[in-house]
Amino acid sequence: MLNELIDKRKVTISGSEDHKTKRNEYNAQASQYARERNTLNNQTRECVEEAQKHKELRDQFNKEVQELKDKRNELNEQANVLFGEIDAFKKEHGGIKSRSIKELHKQIEHLEFRQQTEVFTTEKERELIEKIKALKEQLREQEAEIEQNKEIREKITLAKELRRQASEIHDHVTQLAEDAQKHHDLMVECYRKADLSREKADEAHKKFVEAQEAADNEHKLFIACQKELRDYDKVIGGLRKKNKKVKTTKEQKEVRKEAEQIFSQFKAGEKLTTEDLLLLQRSRLL
Fold it and tell me: Is residue 167 part of a domain?
């Protein structure tokens, strides 16, 4: 029975070492997944922070765009009022039936805006340029015609200056709008990267949990093996102690028997050796 228990103990030791090895492997995997998760979470946070910065810049640029648009519209409105007065003067003092200066300015601005923002074939763009050129010529002719009047000339100068200022603001508005769009696109890209890294972090966390649970399970099995080994040690130790006691008792009986034989020889007057005398002393026969 003792040998059978010893063999079973060896099997349990092997199982214990196997569970310990697997536990350590799973713990190492869990640590690796935890590091990956933490790195990805940091990347997510950095992307979100960068996206927020781009959002703030976009909103700032859009606010400036709206403020400048209001200023531009105000200047254009002032210019339109002056051009309206100029056109009224034309009709009153010449009965000219051609298009008004105000209308010409509006049409020229409209065509120039199309030229800047739309894509044309070479032939179509040439036609557009020629049309703008013709309208500007009409504008110059009409302005030259009414600039004889000092008051009107001053209104034309002021109206042109207002248009120039409005045009400069419009260019600035266009640039700011492009900047706002650029930061909007960057913001969207940062949020896209944040979503991607967050998704990867969630997957790494899932693997971390699975590895941790597997490690915990192997640790429980390892602990169970350790408990089983302690039980085996108790039983085996008890059996060995019992066997040793039985063996000792048997040996003592044999020694006693041998000592009695030697003692009989001693009483018969036979000569004893030193070893015989020591044996008799241990057996308490002397």
Answer: yes
